[in-house]
Sequence to fold (255 residues):
Amino acid sequence: MERRIGEIAITDHVDFDPRYPAYDFVPFERRERVVREAAERWGDHLAVRFGCELTYERQYERDIKDHLTRHRYDFTIGSVHMGPFSPYGTDRVATFVAGGPLDDVVRPYFDEVEAAARSGLFDTLGHLDFIKRYVHPHIEPSDFAARPDLYEPILRALVESGMGLEINTSGLRQSPGQTYPAAPIVALFRAMGGRHVNSGSDAHLADSFAFGLEDGYRVAGGAGFSDSCFDVGGHASPFHCQIGCAPNRRAARSL
Ligand SMILES: [Zn+2]
Fold:
């Protein structure tokens, strides 16, 4: 299918906890070789960038810094995921959320996400509130929408560290039926001084490739962002492009 995508980053997972699936999974050199070969093969039609999605947890910050010092990527996403003992696991989430105020429900995840945002280690922050998927249907997306104050510390940390905010479109094909985060939070980020956004489909399968990217750009545009970019790590972006010039940006993620 013709998608008129001008530029993508392939962002395989990199984990630092041995219990996570992408811990020591595919060596850096092999990942880089595969993506660089694809970049060469498709270069006439599409700019393919070599990226990764690093799982962030405060306890692994030193390992993450070390990894990023030793390895050069075009684009890095920092995301918090569900650990083996996460309270949001399917077998325990109902008990965890029962009767508790939303503040307490989001705290284990949002505290870690805020630390990721404050670290400034990454170009962008991945799927800020994808716990909406795990706590659903016990808690509805509208419950999150009613509490923008819960997001403010994270957005402030992003503004202060200069990191970007990913508009992750996987939520459009999952139970919440909206991006992570939703449009009003992206608008709030803009109002608070946020400068960088990108859109990502979080495709783990070919079927999801570039899924919902246009919706992601629409959310960005609706929030007042006129640009989207990959590399926002404190220096001029070589991959800077106007939203709307062509659906591009981070279209695919693999693993
Ligand atoms: Zn992720």
Notes: The chain is about 35% helix and 15% strand. The mean pLDDT is 87.
